[in-house]
Design a protein that fits this description.
InterPro entries: ClpP/crotonase-like_dom_sf, Enoyl-CoA_hyd/isom_CS, Enoyl-CoA_hydra/iso, Enoyl-CoA_hydra_C. Its EC number is 4.2.1.17. GO terms for molecular function: enoyl-CoA hydratase activity. By secondary structure, this protein is α/β, with parallel strands linked by helices. About 50% of the residues lie in helices and about 15% in strands. The protein is built from 12 helices and 10 strands. A 6-stranded mixed beta sheet has the order 1-2-3-5-7-10, sandwiched between helices. Strands 4-6-8-9 form a 4-stranded mixed beta sheet.
Amino acid sequence: MNQDWILSQQVGRVLTLTLNRPEARNALSTDCLALLVQHLEQADADDGVGCVVLTGSARFFAAGADLRELQQQNVAVTLTDRRPQVWRRFCAFSKPVIAAVNGYALGAGCELALASDIVICGENARFGLPEITLGLMPGAGGTQRLIRCVGKSLAYRMVLSGEVIDARQALVAGLVSEVCVDTLTLEKAQWLAAVIARQAPLALRAAKAALKQAQETTLENGLLAERQLFTVLAGTEDRREGIAAFFDKRSPEFKGR
């Protein structure tokens, strides 16, 4: 495993993780994905990190899974593959994740963007799940997250044809929250991450957990989970500080307690 596949930089409470496999167009091999998750798990345990930004290069966010790795797999190997567990670990990350996407986000790269909490992209961004053109199908949440994100018709079209959509289509469909000038994508994502990272840490974790429930369960169960998390926050010091700061007309000083 090459440690340089993931570059890490922290400014304030924002950690930026950059995919760095230029020779493979940032393809997400299992080892590369596992290294990314290791960084996230370290960030999850670090009180000094409030939000994470994931990014790639100017031309490639991530061009997919590593096809050479897939080429070696048969049914038996696929059944015992550790990759699904690595993806589950990614999804267990409790702090906000913003994907800053320039260039191509294809296959596993698109799935990585879909698994992130917020996506900001440049005008040159392209999103797609082209696995069908290789006799495959998405296998890391692509079918499930895409249809929840962009709706039935577009999801079917993208998955069954392998068609790629551009940044403006992704914005209209709800896959991304903002389209920027390419050179400003990372800066915009880091600015938003800094805004998020200033909020109360326990409230951020609770809010993210509640939002995930909305995608994974019924409305009734989601409302119940939301209320439970809301109630738990009532006992935190940060909640008392946030309300006191509002009435005092000052900025709150959250402690994560």
